[in-house]
Design a protein that fits this description.
Structural class: alpha/beta
Number of domains: 2
Radius of gyration: 21 Å
Number of strands: 16
Order of helices and strands: EEEEEEHEHEHEHEHHHEHEHHHEHHEEE
Oligomer: single chain
CATH architecture of the largest domain: Alpha-Beta Barrel
Strand content: 15-25%
Distance between the termini: 16 Å
């Protein structure tokens, strides 16, 4: 579908530094101007009175599992769910496809699948494991947005954890390419030592799962990663920070001059241990959900800018892997890219303004990962945006656009709804296709 000249009229437009009722002129899929265009004719118009025009979400942390594990999700269903929740860009993680993305060939296979199936624009992570070190340059040549490492077991046997040697060598090579390392930061030695002192019963409950992975493991792992990042000069991004202890470790590294940012996820803001215990295995994730007091501190850090970005960490699995009597045997991932943001809007606006929310959900991730034309409603930017309106519908299984009807948010009702999601000035829908994005290039 060809982009046309379009005017969005009378929306509350969320710009980088303000949110005011205005018009937005869109030409050739880009934002041409923001202002008063009441005297401009000859364009298609959308009257968005009473609606908020918000930048399309830039979700740099999803697991769509294509190719090889599309029975878990897939690019087609995953991108449709993301778009239904306001997302216009995603970056797919390397570990859950089969085989994982650890070299040039597997990277190309994932890109080809994304180009065939995704309804929104996308980027791809490469993997940083003991097996991928010789292939860093090949994946970078193909356009890897960043490289992902786990300090603890990933849950996928073929995607092995990175020790200090692998991190150091990988960071040297990745820094030389001007790229970044993203890290799942939980220290396996801290977890093992803790579990020896506090062994979890089997079968275990959600409460047992929460107790088995202490925040100290996150804090130590982040400290180790940032120390190596400082030695190598590599930029680093700590994904899904879940605890105040983890935040403190990032802030300490920043004070020492390390180029480090941090992400948290909607589920760490919307859910706490009590909610997770009620919901059950659908709310199992790693790091685990934390106590209410920790959740409030995450909100404070998001509002004041210490937490940089929001990523959904959408990590689904077939229902049989998210069920059973033993929580420890179930898959540890939350499927939430469709409803995490709509549920977040109301509690976020109690703590911050629209522009700050847009910064962490769109502008900051686009800037950090080098997607220069994404993430903001401003002249020259891609016309990626979502129209929001107050109100919401009960979340039930039939409303999920993802492959499987498993979500920790079933039964909740957001106070804001996504009306329409636009990618490059065109409503995302049947037949729309996304483009592959690389860092530091314009779309």
């Amino acid at each position: 579908m060809k982009a046309e000249t379009l005017i969005i009229r009378n929306a509350k437009v969320v710009e980088p530094h303000q949110a005011e009722v205005s018009d937005v002129l869109i030409e050739d899929g880009r934002i041409a101007a923001v202002g008063d265009f009441s005297n401009v004719g000859g364009a298609r118009e959308i009257d968005a009175s009473g609606k908020v025009m918000f930048p399309g979400l830039v979700d740099m942390h999803v697991h769509f599992n294509d190719p090889g594990r599309a029975d878990w999700e897939g690019m087609e269903t995953g991108s449709a769910a993301l778009a239904a929740g306001g997302g216009t860009v995603f970056a797919d993680m390397p570990l859950n496809s089969h085989p994982p993305v650890l070299d040039r060939e597997t990277f190309i296979a994932k890109r080809v699948r994304g180009e065939a199936a995704s309804c929104v624009d996308f980027a791809l992570w490469g993997g940083l494991t003991p097996d991928s070190l010789p292939h860093i340059d090949g994946m970078a040549d193909e356009g890897a947005i960043a490289f992902k490492a786990f300090l603890c077991p990933s849950g996928i046997d073929e995607f092995r954890a990175a020790d200090a040697r692998v991190l150091r060598e990988g960071m040297k090579r990745i820094a030389a390419r001007g790229l970044m390392v993203g890290v799942h930061a939980e220290d396996p030695e801290v977890i093992e030592a803790w579990q020896k002192i506090h062994p979890a019963p089997r079968p275990g409950t959600m409460r047992d799962w929460f107790a088995s992975r202490p925040a100290a493991a996150e804090k130590k792992a982040i400290g180790r990663v940032c120390e190596i990042a400082g030695e190598t000069g590599c930029r680093v991004h700590i994904v899904h920070v879940s605890s105040p202890e983890g935040m403190d470790a990032v802030m300490a590294a920043r004070a020492m001059g390390v180029d480090v940012t941090m992400e948290t996820c909607p589920h760490y803001l919307l859910l706490d241990e009590d909610a997770g215990a009620r919901i059950g295995i659908a709310a199992k994730c790693a790091p685990p959900l934390r106590p209410r007091a920790a959740v409030e501190k995450l909100w404070m850090a998001l509002a004041d800018g210490r937490i940089d970005t929001i990523g959904s960490d959408h990590s689904p699995a077939p229902p049989e892997m998210k069920s059973g009597e033993d929580v420890f045997a179930a898959w540890g991932g939350i499927a939430g890219c469709q409803h995490g943001f709509p549920l977040m809007v109301a509690p976020a606006l109690e703590r911050m303004d629209w522009s700050r929310l847009a910064a962490c959900c769109a502008q900051a991730p686009a800037r950090r990962f080098g997607l220069g034309s994404k993430g903001a409603i401003a002249p020259g930017m891609d016309a990626d945006f979502v129209l929001l309106e107050p109100g919401g519908d009960l979340i039930h299984a039939a409303s999920l656009r993802q492959r499987h009807p498993v979500s920790p948010y079933l039964g909740m009702t957001p106070r804001w709804r996504v009306v329409t999601t636009f990618s490059r000035g065109i409503p995302v829908g049947a037949g729309s296709r996304g483009r592959f994005l690389t860092p530091h290039t314009e779309t």
